[in-house]
Structures are given as C-alpha cells and as structure tokens.
Amino acid sequence: MKTWGNIEIQSLKKTAFLCSQKCPAEIVLKSFDWAKEQRETGNCIVCGNHSQIEKDVFEILLKGKQPLILILARCMKTRWEPEIENAVNEKRLLVISPFEKETKRITRETAEIRNKKIIEISDKIVIGYKSKNGQLEKLLTRIEYEQL
Which among 103, 127, 131 has a CA at the least distance from the CA of 115? Predict the structure, then answer.
C-alpha cells in the first residue's frame, strides 16, 4: 500500500462516502448538501473519487479545510492537480493506493478493492445511492451504513 500526504489523518474518526455510478438527480443535490455540511463541520471524509458524484463531492470537500482521505482504484499517480497538491502541502489530505505501479487502469475489480479499503478504514459509512443489484449493493450486504 502506497501513501502520500499526512498519515496522521488515519487516526481521526472517519466517515466514508460512496455512491453508485448512476444516481437520481435528487440524490446529487442531497450529496452536494451533505458534502457542504461535512466541510463546514470539519469532519474527516474518506472518498474514492471514481463515480461522477464521488468526484463532485470530493471537489466540494477539497475547497474546505477539513482533513480528507482519497483512496485510489489504481496505482499512485505521478502528477496531480494543483488543488490536491495544495491540500497535501497543507497536511490535510492523505492519498492511499492499495495497488502496485503496474495497476494503471481502473477496473471493476480494482474499484471493488478500493471500496472495501474505504469501508475498512472508516468509522461510519454514508451512501449517496446504490444501484439495485449493483457492485456497491453487493458489497454492503452485511455492513451498517447511512443512506442519504
């Protein structure tokens, strides 16, 4: 497992945010409101930044000052967006990749491994939306979570 950023963030109480690739419009709005609330209260959030809604939620959170953990479904990138570099330099972001450098593409399998890692390290799970019979629904069968 590779890390980049402030590893001390791992010791904080963490809330995971996960969402299926496709979700209804009202869930998008609820997710944005939830992200803004988390940003304002300073809660540490663990994101995957894979589905569009997860990316949007991560971007909202990145504009705040609270600690964040980003878990990748591929190897550690070598170049990052300035916002991510700034958050790492401010010691409020930890990026984790459970993959070796050969895993450059995101697949269904790597996304599942990433989601399991997000759940494993989080104290609380928040689900924006899970598609019926989708990968996320299958992963959550025996896990307690909060639905937006």
Answer: 127
Secondary structure letter of residue 10 according to DSSP: G
- Under 8 Å between Cβ of 49 and 55: yes
Give per-residue pLDDT as tens, 78-106.
Answer: 999 999 999 999 999 999 999 999 999 99
Position 21, amino acid: Q
What's the alpha-carbon Rg for the chain, to the nearest Å? Answer: 14
Which stretches within the chain are classed as H helix?
A: 25-41, 52-62, 82-89, 108-121, 135-139
- Strand-pairing partners, residue 47, are 70
**Does the pLDDT value for residue 21 go beyond 90?**
no
Closest CA to 68 of 86, 44, 85, 36: 44
In angstroms, the Cα distances linking 95 to 3, 16, 31, 72, 115 are 6, 14, 22, 8, 14
Determine if the pTM surpasses 0.70: yes
